[in-house]
Amino acid sequence: MSMETQNIEFDAVSELAQRWSVLQRVAVVEDDYAEHRSRYEGAMYRFIKAIEQNGRLKPNQDTGSFDIFALHEKMTSHLFPAYSNTDERFLALALCGETGELANLVKKRWRDGADLSEEIRDEIADIRVYLELLAKCFGIEGDKLDERVQSKLCKVVEKHRARLGG
User: Fold this and answer.
1) Is the full-model pTM beyond 0.70?
2) Is residue 18 part of a domain?
3) Does residue 151 lie in a domain region?
4) What's the rounded Cα separation, in Å, for the pair 139 and 100?
5) Count of C-beta atoms within a 10 Å radius of residue 105
6) What is the rounded distance in angstroms from the CA atom of residue 65 to the CA atom of residue 52?
7) Domain enclosing residue 29, as ranges
8) Is the residue at 150 inside a domain?
9) What is the pLDDT of residues 106-155, one digit of tens each?
10) In sequence order, which residues have a C-beta less than 8 Å from that of residue 99 and are 6 or more positions away?
11) How far apart are CA 139 and CA 120, in angstroms?
């Protein structure tokens, strides 16, 4: 690992720590929470890229992508030592927190006419991560979850067939 890539990683982790420190002091209900959360997530993204460049984070050899379960554990295990990515209570609350952030951004977009499309997309991605982690707790992650959603939609259609005109 070169000195330059070490410096990039050090700068990224320093920014991540600074953004985390700020984020901890902002209440979730404050209007600028989403902005601080977005800055923290941007710092996390830059840190992930830095450790990837340094060869300390490698994508799955079969898929070429990162295992979100393993990545989440690596990135948050130091933040939530009493919890893990297998604690359904923690994950359910985290999912609620992320959906609250999404609702807050949609409110601001509606109320203020602000273009928050990128921030909203990021929150939707956060929700997907926590939903997948929670689904894994119940053994229905990935394709199993997709199959379960399809099955549920079929049941809903069957239940409301008369109203749907079929």
Assistant:
1) no
2) yes
3) no
4) 25
5) 24
6) 12
7) 1-58
8) no
9) 999 999 999 999 999 999 998 998 899 899 999 998 899 999 999 999 99
10) 127
11) 28
